[in-house]
Amino acid sequence: MNIDRRHLALPVLFAGLMAALPSDSQAATAEEAAVQKRVEALRDAQRAKDAKALTALTSAELSYSHSDAHVEDQATFVKNATGTTTKVISIENKDIWVKVVGDIALVRFHWTSESEVVADGKHSTANLHVLQVWNKRASDWMLLARCSTKLV
């Protein structure tokens, strides 16, 4: 069988078109990057004690669980995160892992933070493993749930 350029044209054209289309993994990577930006925006809003940003980043149905097992809804989380009894010195999220599954994103990371009690200047640190659940609504990712575990 003789193969000439006409026989190769269609497969080459098809391969070129397929390469130009985003694959599921490319789409997932773009969504994962979008979620990671929201995770970082939440950290920045917590550091800045920005109630408006915290509200915009979290779902009205938020379930925010702390490492001491107490759970806050959205209003309580925003109120406590923006309170004046403590001063945030630092918050760092390390080793962020994101997995998007449909309109849900699972996020895990190592959280370290330092804060100071305003009344007496006492410093405290946190060393936690955090799991967050984000939900895509319209075009925005919203924090739906968070839980953490103390690390030694």
Question: What would you say this structure looks like, in words?
Answer:
The chain is 37% helix and 43% strand. It has a six-stranded mixed beta sheet. The protein is built from four helices and six strands, in the order H-H-H-E-E-H-E-E-E-E. With 152 residues, the chain is of the alpha+beta class. The longest helix has 25 residues, at 24-48. The chain has helices at 5-20, 24-48, 51-57, 74-81, and strands at 58-65, 71-72, 86-101, 104-117, 123-137, 140-150.
What does the secondary structure layout of this molecule look like, with pairings?
Elements: H1 5-20, H2 24-48, H3 51-57, E1 58-65, E2 71-72, H4 74-81, E3 86-101, E4 104-117, E5 123-137, E6 140-150
Parallel strand pairs: 1-6
Antiparallel strand pairs: 1-2, 3-4, 4-5, 5-6
Terminal CA distance: 70 Å
Query: What sort of overall outline do the alpha carbons produce when their principal axes are compared?
Result: elongated
Question: What would the average pLDDT be, to the nearest integer?
Answer: 88
The CATH topology, please?
A: Nuclear Transport Factor 2, Chain: A
Would you tell me the structural class of the helices and strands?
alpha+beta
Estimate what percentage of residues fall within beta strands: 35-45%
Number of domains: 1
Count every beta strand, where a strand is a DSSP E run of 2 or more residues: 6
Major sheet strand order: 2-1-6-5-4-3
CATH class: Alpha Beta
- Give helix % range: 25-40%
What CATH architecture would you give?
A: Roll
